Amino acid sequence: YQHFRKEEHELIDQLIDKCNRANDQYSPILTPFLDPRGQYIMNVVAGSFEDLEVTFYGGPFAERKRAMIAPSYFQPDAEAFEIVLIEIDYPQKFVTLQHQHILGTIMSLGIEREQLGDIIVAGDIQFVLTERLESYIMFELNRIKGATVKLNSIPIKDMIQSKENWKIHSTTVSAMRLDVVLKDMIHKSRNIAKQLIEKKRVKVNHTIIDTPDFQLEQNDLLSIQGFG
User: Which of 38, 61, 207, 226 has the greatest count of CB atoms below 10 A from its CB?
Assistant: First the structure.
């Protein structure tokens, strides 16, 4: 715990439990989808178990991945991770769908975020899902943002790569408080930065943080709804 923030302790407990099961049963255990920070924590936790190895997979270009915790003898293939790739067929001439539309609609069906992998919007739209939910979502998901859609399961090898746009910006800040750093990132006032944080529109390492005085550390990843 001393190496991680208190917000991450619940995930640590879950991953320790899965490692204990894999170690005691001497058999592979599969986790839900983990974001990159979760994958890092998974590696740290598994590192304290001498006979366990961890393999991650969520598709060829995935950011969110499931972890396979297993004895060193076990070599998982792609099928062992029990994921499916689904492509959305929708009327592109009449409606524009974005990441938040896909995520919001899927979660409105009662599907938890941890059961959903990457959502890729790059002309075509695809998303990765745990295999056991495939038939459910095929039956339930037929409209997004008022448009009729059709879902098709396709081979995981056909996963497309999302397009990312990066700009490098350097700044000097008076403190490592979240609101202080955030205002320089979005070029707005500190008051606006504070409002964004309190409205739960800011994530640090993929976790929503709603306290403006949250202390950032080296290599933290910030994402702000509406800004990137």
Answer: 38
